[in-house]
Amino acid sequence: MERVIVTPNRIGKPPLDGGLSLRWSARLSLTTRILAVNILAIALLAGSLFYLNNYRDSLTEERLAQARLQLTIISDALEFETAIDQSDLIVRSAQHLNARIRLYGADGSKIVDSFDLAAPTYQFIDPDTQPWRKDAARILDQTIENMVLSAPIGNYAEPEIDHFSAWQELSLARKTGQPTSSVSFAPDRTPVIVAAISQGNSSEGLLLTSNAKDITRIVRAERSSVILVIFAAAVVSILLSLFLARTIVRPIRKLARAAVQVRMGRSTEISIPKMPGRRDEIGQLGRALADMSAALRHRIDATEAFAADVSHEIKNPLASLRSALEGMERVDDPELKKQLLDIANDDVQRIDRLINDISDASRVDAELARAMFERIDVGRMIEQLLASREQRMSNQGIKIAFARPGRDVAMVMGDGGRLERVFSNLLDNAVSFSKEGDLIEILATPDADEVIIHISDQGPGIPEEQRKTIFNRFHSDRPETEDFGRHSGLGLSIAQTIIEGHEGSIQVFDRRDNKPGTCFEVRLPKAGGQPL
Q: Looking at residue 180, what is its pLDDT?
């Protein structure tokens, strides 16, 4: 019994490749496809060879009509001539027309034959005596006739007894009272034109035969010219196809090999060629892959560095926790055991805070990439954040003054939850460096195309040489106080990542009023008319 495999959740859905697959040519290389498409155009040009067969048929029909007309004129002229003059007229007409003319009497017997009275005007050629090129031409003629399903043409043969009744054309002419004509092939497959006319119901008749070799010669000459053109076009097309394939396939293969090397990860110095000299789609692809590879390498390096930092930061509280637990086994003093237990508890809380911050830092990029930005009133958001901090008593006796802008004045596009996390981290940082009774000032003002937020504290300030490093992960430059271990050093790094994800910037300066302290400046693009 045949098994039917059904892929779940794919019924009624578009193909995974977006409909770009080529089922009929899936196994063909790009070079082969380019050659096939261009050679197909040459094949269509080769179809003109079949048109030449129709051209030959039209020439033959025209020659048959001419033969009937010529024979009618000769027949009319013979009615006014004597027997001697008739013979002379027949000979001269045959010489002029390169034909053989025969006159049959009332009893059906042949009376006059131009070939008997003068030298023959044509001769049938034995094909066995001709060179091989003629044989090849005849084979090509016959092949094309068979392919285009031409009506079959019989072979010409002289009757054994040259009599009126031996010629079908004469019999048909007598029956219809009109001149008739037909075509057949000589031994070398050249057309033989036969035309006949009969006088009344008698057996008198006139017969004209000619070997129209010029028709075959004209058609074969045209065919040779077409074949030469097709051959030249095929050569040029193949060369251009190979050139086109070279300019497309080679760089794509080079990019593919570089991409595979990047995927294998065997070297960190693999560089994908950007192809700056190419301004076409291949150049765009090369530059896009190079930029993607650089961004991927940067992210991998950042991930590795982050993992190393995490390992280092977790080792410190783990070492302290291990030391406290080992000390508790050797200490009998209850008071000392309580101190060691408090240290172990602080270390566990520190590890918990560190893991939570690490989790937030690792998710922020991915979540921002998927977030749907909306219009946000920064003033209202900060006002709600301050009210929430007051309820939780997170300010630790520090005063916060907020110059709230007008409603819908400081509008930005962004993820409200993430932006609130930024200002919460900045406020936590300011509170941690402030003393009870100090004042933290918040100012949000719209600019031409930005909204600028300043958060100023009255802390010790940040030295200028450290103002860039404070945004590094796990950076924490704090005095040895009782609050040691409460800060993971990820708050400002997370804030910078979120702000840059909103196409903004964050910097730190001295206070504008020359007072001691630090001022964090956040710049965000002002919101447009519609949500993103």
A: 93
Residue written as token pair 């950076």: 475
The residue with tokens 């991998």 is 300
In CATH, what class is 47-211?
alpha beta
The predicted pLDDT at position 270 comes to: 63
* N-term to C-term CA, the chain: 54
Distance CA 368, CA 416 (A): 11
Cross-strand partners of 451: 446, 524
Least reliable range by pLDDT among 80-84, 304-308, 356-360, 486-490: 486-490
Confidence of residue 475 (pLDDT cuts 50, 70, 90): low
The 10 Å Cβ neighbour count of residue 199 is: 17
Distances from the Cα of 208 to the Cαs of 93, 94, 195, 343, 495, in angstroms? 10, 8, 5, 129, 107
For the four alpha carbons of 481, 487, 490 and 494, in that order, the dihedral sign comes to negative
pTM over 0.90: no
- Report how far residue 74's alpha carbon sits from residue 312's, in angstroms, rounded to the nearest whole number: 118
What is the fold, at CATH topology level, of the domain defined by 371-532? Answer: Heat Shock Protein 90 (3.30.565)
The contacts of residue 65 (CB under 8 Å, 6+ apart) are 181
3-class secondary-structure state, position 63: helix
Q: What's the mean pLDDT when you consider all of the chain?
A: 78
Residue 470 has what DSSP assignment? Answer: G
pLDDT interval class at 192 (50, 70, 90): very high
Are 115 and 221 contacting, i.e. CB atoms less than 8 angstroms apart?
no
Q: Where are the alpha helices (DSSP H) in 47-152?
A: 48-78, 83-97, 114-117, 132-147
Residues 119 and 208: their CA atoms lie apart, in Å, by: 16
Q: Where are the beta strands (DSSP E) in 156-255?
A: 180-185, 191-198, 205-211
Domain with CATH 3.30.565.10 in the chain: 371-532
Q: For residue 341, what are its two tokens?
A: 């237990």
Whether residue 482 contacts residue 476, with contact meaning beta carbons closer than 8 Å, is answered with: no
Separation between Cα atoms, residue 285 and residue 272, nearest integer Å: 11
Q: In which region does residue 272 sit, left (phi positive, over 0), alpha (psi from -120 to 50) or beta (all else)?
A: beta
pLDDT tens digits for range 365-379: 666 667 788 888 888
The boundaries of every CATH 3.30.450.20 domain in the chain are: 47-211
**Lowest mean pLDDT, pick from 54-63, 263-272, 313-322:** 263-272
Distance CA 30, CA 43 (A): 20
Q: What crossing angle do the helices spanning 213-264 and 132-147 adopt, rounded to 10°?
A: 80
Of 457, 459, 475, 367, the closest CA to residue 421 belongs to 367
| Separation CA 396–CA 522 (nearest Å) | 24
Parallel/antiparallel/unpaired status of strands 439-446 and 399-403: parallel
